[in-house]
Amino acid sequence: MRRRTLLAAAGAALLGACSSPVAERSTAPRTSRPRTTVPSPTTAPAPTSAPPTPATAEEVLARSTVPVLCFHQLREFRADDSAYARTIITPPAMFRAQLQGLRDGGRTPIGVPDLLDHLQFGAPLPDRPVLLTFDDGSATHHSVALPVLREFGFPAAFFPMTVVLGKPDWLSPDQLRELDAAGMTIGAHSWDHQRVDRLTGDQWVEQLDRPRAELAGILGHPVETMAYPHGMWSPEALPRVATAGYRAAFQLADPQDPAHPLLTVRRIMPPPTWDGPTLLAQLDAWS
User: Fold this and answer.
1) What is the DSSP letter of 138?
2) Gap between the Cα atoms of 255 and 58, Å rounded
3) CB 3.0 to 4.6 Å from 170: which of 37, 164, 191, 209, for a disulfide?
4) H helix intervals, the chain
5) pLDDT by residue (tens digit) across 166-184?
6) pLDDT of 80-121, one tens digit each?
7) What 8-state DSSP symbol labels residue 95?
8) Is the sign of the CA dihedral 229, 235, 236, 237 positive or negative?
């Protein structure tokens, strides 16, 4: 299986009672006239529709045509950035140009729930959809990405490592809650960026279960998605991901697993050298 790696980053509540009406007592005097029993009106139960049938793996694969973009840090280059780091660091002006290119080129960013409902249940999507995702948990996801996303009205998904939360230059719990309140999806990205294809023993709980639980505690609702650190996964890891409670998981550009396509959703990392028109052309070719 072809592997592509990301730059290793520093350092991821559960969520009535009904009362019956009390009949009003009459104060009118009684008469000797026989009482007539009037049947109580009955309310027909509201029609219920059957829950949608989940798609087969083959159907999910056939629907997996929506481009998913993966960003990392959004900042200016520094003198000590390596050549590889400069391929996954996007200067803020270029980030804005890329998102403006998506808007001006007729692409419609969608949310993670929209994509998953489409893949799993065939829910309709707008024309030319695209999904925006952000890995690792850089503070620039709040300071740079969020204002531009709000300006353009774009949803997105953020996948932070939990080891870095609250540390300098990384997202804080309050910032995660703000992203969540703004309509963004928050998913897990392991505890400290360990490759899931190399986990053993207690590492599964540490890297999959605990980050999901920690993020749920911060946000006040369950977390259903994750992104694989370095984009790496293995068929042997997928049952562990499912057992940990994830509905879907995002990799990079490897082919999706034919038996578990929802746990191997593909993504592409747009380099900072792509302007808006180049990004649009690459998306058309990729999807």
Assistant:
1) B
2) 13
3) 164
4) 57-63, 85-88, 92-104, 112-121, 140, 146-152, 173-181, 203-204, 210-219, 238-243, 276-286
5) 999 999 999 999 999 999 9
6) 999 999 999 999 999 999 999 999 999 999 999 999 999 999
7) H
8) positive
